[in-house]
């Protein structure tokens, strides 16, 4: 499966659309601005839905922006070949999307007053959504069967997954609390756990 990927810091990235140099620059050089809003999600967690909702909130419900500007221009993915340069050159408040795990995220986030929304989805739903998505795209290797995809998923051998960090830092309440304590001016953190 991994022939369509390259590994960077323990995470597999698709060979198309991601460059090692950009990933290094994102972590070490990218500056998160105070007025930025970040959407952080694990792949197949409902990222596009959340972007659409946030864009409608930002425009007070006016759909013209989302109807005329592609989603990748409204909220570029920080780690992609097209998103990284677009975000560097963007003026004013930026809406930034990322699937990066915490150890690859820009260090500047942790000293910034930028707002961040982290979306967590039930892993069973992520598994099924990922299986159907990757089974119907030419962007990455097709898993073929749900059994094969399930094995990849458990091993962390899928798009932006790591067997060692799958669901660790970003999804832990301890991490969220740590970020809340370390960020100056953070007004509050809302935790919602459905058990």
Please state the overall shape, judged from the principal axes of the Cα atoms: globular
Residue-averaged pLDDT: 82
> CATH superfamily, called what?
P-loop containing nucleotide triphosphate hydrolases
- Helix and strand content put the structural class at alpha/beta
Termini Cα gap: 34 Å
Helix content percent band? 25-40%
Spatial sequence of strands, sheet with the most strands: 4-3-5
Number of helices: 8
Question: Which blocks of ≥5 consecutive residues have pLDDT under 50?
Answer: 163-171
Strand content: 5-15%
GO molecular function, one term: sulfotransferase activity
Pfam families: Sulfotransfer_1
EC number: 2.8.2.-
Protein name: Sulfotransferase
In short:
The chain is of the alpha/beta class and 195 residues long. It has one domain: 3-Layer(aba) Sandwich (Rossmann fold), CATH 3.40.50.300. The chain has eight helices and five strands, in the order ββαβααααββααα.
Annotation keywords:
three-stranded parallel β-sheet, 195 residues, Rossmann fold, globular, two-stranded antiparallel ribbon, 8 helices, transferase, cytoplasm, alpha/beta
Compile the SSE list and pairings.
Layout: E1 5-8, E2 11-14, H1 20-28, E3 37-41, H2 47-58, H3 64-68, H4 71-74, H5 83-89, E4 95-98, E5 115-119, H6 123-135, H7 146-155, H8 173-182
Parallel strand pairs: 3-4, 3-5
Antiparallel strand pairs: 1-2
Helix pairs in contact: 6-7
